[in-house]
Amino acid sequence: MKQVLHQSYEEGELMVIATIPNREGKSTRVTEFPATAQVDWVKIAACGSLLTGGLLLLSGQKRGGLVMAAAGTALALMDHEEALRDWWEAMPGYVDRAQSMLEQVQDVVENITEKGESLRRVLSRRTTAMPG
Questions:
Q1: Per-residue confidence at 14, pLDDT binned at 50, 70, 90?
Q2: Among residues 17, 78, 97, 102, which is most buried (max CB within 10 A)?
């Protein structure tokens, strides 16, 4: 450690004002940013926008939060253009499968409805046929 020294009023005496840590013992990883490292400003902007949007939404500012979240999402998607393109091309297949599943569910619901109606008819016949 280096010490900053100040000469006092009496000649020859030294007084310590501040202690400054010695930089020689520190690693360069902590004290210096490598010159070869590239900063991805798009990712930083996307994360910042998403974070800001979330905080705005939590604070009750819906419009501003949605705008910031949409901007952050758009910036994040810029970085994954190929994956987004693949997903967009696969979208019609997903829609077709979802539509097929909904049609199957609709058929099952109609079948259950028909069986319920026939069961009600059978039960109503039995109650009218039985003498009370």
A1: low
A2: 78
